[in-house]
Design a protein that fits this description.
Largest sheet: 7 strands, parallel
Radius of gyration: 17 Å
Number of helices: 8
Order of helices and strands: HEHEHEHEHEHHEHE
Amino acid sequence: MSAVTVAGSRPLLGQVALVTGGVRRIGRATALALAGAGADIVINARNSQQEAEDTCHAVEALGVRAMTHLADVTDEIAVAGMLAEIEARMGRLDILVNNAAIRREAALIDMMLAEWREIQSVILEGAFLCSRAALPGMVRRGHGRIINIGGVSAHTGAIERAHVAAAKAGLEGLTRAAAVEFAGHGITVNCVAPGKIGGKRSGTSGNTVSLPGGASPIVPREGAPEDVAAMILTLCGPAGDFVTGQTIHVNGGLFLT
């Protein structure tokens, strides 16, 4: 089912969305879903130029503007430069999807401090830097949507993922604090927490998180990046206008809140 069909129209027409880590899996699916609803798209990646261009072309095929910008979201100057270029080329930024992440596996007892800090830097500090850079423009325009991509491991724990689970839990705290601070400016901030989503992840030994007890979804199928993208699209559109400060789980019943 296409993103246009899911949305029922093009409710994001005239808006501009930035998707960090937007070249594969959930990031790519989100870029395509938002584009299908009419948003112009900025694809961010750290160094995957060809994949960024491929996603950009796929977005443009949906009839919207698109651009790529390679930037390390942990670099304060690079993030500021990215937002400046978006304002210059696209004229505005309405939607920020903080999806950039790296997922390493390491037993807590063997984990080096550098490994811990690397994960926190990309997942948590990257979301902070991108949000801080995007918020002034959203405040000026009196409208904005920030979506942080969390994860089920923040709630269940996960084997050899203490650093990732901690960073994702931190994203939920950032989400709630920012939602409270900017609600009066017409800005909503939410966290979407995927469960087990099919497809190979780079930097890991498999395609799923090793949860306690080998938990499985109760919905009898594998989750797809498009399932997560559909929820992000809902939160970014008119249906999400009264939803803020929430963590919304997309996990097929793997974790029941």
